[in-house]
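__Protein archive entry__

___
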Amino acid sequence: QVQLVESGGGLVQAGDSLRLSCTASGRTFSTYRMGWFRQAPGKERAFVASIRWSGDRTTYTDSAKGRFTISRDNSKNTVYLQMNSLKPEDTAVYYCALDVDGVQYDYWGQGTQVTVSS
């Protein structure tokens, strides 16, 4: 089993920055990639960004490109999401997820709230 704990959410103003963190514990030796998703009120959960656990391949949704950066620290089993130039439409609960073998995301965190005021 793997446990994921997110942190770093909060209430900010449009244009501000936040850095989310997600630390994995448990059976983390088999990690293919980690990702960030978000769910806005009344909407389905949506992909934001992902990063391979080895190598540097990253993927972003179009709305995150140029504003968000995903990174990782393997020694700390932690993945980060640096979010700059935040907009009110970025308001959502942000979840991190871990994919063991490249098929699907197997483990999910509890989420951290990000609220961006205009």
Summary: The longest strand covers residues 18-26. The chain has no helices and eleven strands. The mean pLDDT is 95. The two ends are 40 Å apart (CA to CA).
